[in-house]
Amino acid sequence: MSEAQVISLGCRLNISESEQIRAMLAQERDLVVVNSCAVTSEAVRQTRQAIRRARRAHPDARLLVTGCAADIERDQLAAMPEVDGLVANTAKLDARAWNVPAAVPAPQNRTRAFIAVQNGCDHACTFCVIPQGRGRSRSQSVREVLAEVERHLDHGAPEVVLTGVDVTSWGHDLPDSPPLGELVHAVLQTFPQLQRLRMSSLDGIEIDPLLFELFAYEERLMPHLHLSLQHGHDLILKRMKRRHLRRDAVDLVARLVDLRPDLAVGADLIAGFPTETEEHHAANLAIIREINIVHGHIFPYSPRPGTPATRMPQVERETVKRRAAELREAARQTRDEWLASLADKPHSVLAERDGTGYTPHFARIAVPHGTPAGTIVSLTPTAFENGLLQ
Q1: Where are the beta strands (DSSP E) in 37-103?
Q2: Which residues contact 382 (CB under 8 A, 6 or more apart)?
Q3: How many helical (H) and strand (E) elements, i.e. helices and strands, does the chain have?
Q4: Whether 326 contacts 285, CB under 8 Å
Q5: Which of 270, 260, 256 lies closest to 39, judged by CA?
Q6: Is 322 in contact with 298 (CB distance < 8 Å)?
Q7: Crossing angle of helices 209-217/246-259, nearest 10°?
Q8: pLDDT digit string (tens) for 84-100?
Q9: 337 by DSSP, 3-state: which?
Q10: Is 176 within 8 Å of 203 (Cβ atoms)?
Q11: Please, what is the Cα angle at 271 between 73 and 200, to 5 degrees?
Q12: What does the longest C-alpha to C-alpha distance in the chain come to?
């Protein structure tokens, strides 16, 4: 192999960090980096699979593992014969950890630029292991974020995605504790040439008034709100140690949709959390329809090491799998109905490299053959098939 390869698993923050690692290691040879995920036991299993596949594909390369699993599952990954070494998750963006010259890498030419504005988490959700791998919440300053946005715009990025572990906690550790809305407003005001700004998963309870207004009225802020919801029943939310209740999410979405009717709602939902009954599960199913979740990310609960939820009464695995399947089916139905409603209407579409593109609401659509990646075109789909507008 001629240049370093970076395999990214997990969240959008990992995608952003993988791009930085790839650029930082651009001059390295015969090196494979697996940027791992540990949010669920399934994510750890996929990390191990990726390591084995990478070793089979590159038997003579040096294979290093970083990311959350490199900290949380350190002993298990270090024991894998395919792995040559681990790089701590908190050090993976430091050139010294890779023994390469420190330099400011040029952004890669991508259709969508992921910019990490925040890392770590100060909350203690009972199911979540990520604070063990990411540490306390740290925010990039407004100046640092604006400089990063400018670099990507200079390299032609038509869309910027602001991401992090707990994005709505951005600013809590900065002087005067500015809310996230101030950062989003600064990006939009500073760069009138920025065509599309998208937010990653948000904690609805921390959406400040300015960010709410921007979602409601700013056309360049994409009408795509993804909530870190996790469940639809108040008792389970309390046992998860979430800071919102069901009504908070329902009211937030209703207020926003009233002002911006084309808003597409996404959410993370966990199936089979410890102590979950059929009544709790029914509430989880019902909230998909109630707030019209069209981008549903469904996770079957899995115990994570050192988390309080592992000490709670567990739901049988077969029940967890069944409930996850029922949630996925409910989410598929709302998504299909939503996609059907988008047909015969014009949409601004950002073309990708695989012959598809995305509307502002993050609906996937086929683009005409030969459409250059990174261009924004107007398309009017007439139907949808297998989740893809045509």
Answers
A1: 62-67, 85-86
A2: 343, 344, 390
A3: 13, 18
A4: yes
A5: 270
A6: no
A7: 40
A8: 989 988 888 888 888 77
A9: helix
A10: no
A11: 70
A12: 58
Say whether pLDDT at 15 is over 90. no
Read off the tokens for 16: 């952003």
Ranges assigned E (strand) in 172-292: 196-199, 224-230, 264-271
Q: What one-letter code names the amino acid at 39?
A: V
Return left, alpha or beta for 274; rule: phi > 0 is left, psi -120 to 50 is alpha, else beta: beta
Overall residue count recorded for the chain in this entry:
390
Using alpha carbons, list the distances in angstroms from residue 245 to 125, 241, 266, 328.
14, 10, 17, 22
* Rounded distance between C-alpha atoms, residue 95 and residue 334, angstroms: 45
Q: What is the pLDDT of residues 195-224, one digit of tens each?
A: 999 999 999 999 999 999 999 999 999 999
Structural Rg of the chain based on CA atoms: 21
How far is Cα 138 from Cα 164, in angstroms, rounded to an integer? 10
Distance of alpha carbon 332 from alpha carbon 325, whole angstroms: 10
Strand ranges inside the chain, DSSP E: 5-8, 31-36, 62-67, 85-86, 112-116, 118-119, 138-139, 159-163, 196-199, 224-230, 264-271, 293-300, 347-351, 356-358, 364-366, 376-379, 384-385, 388-389
Output the pTM of the full model. 0.86
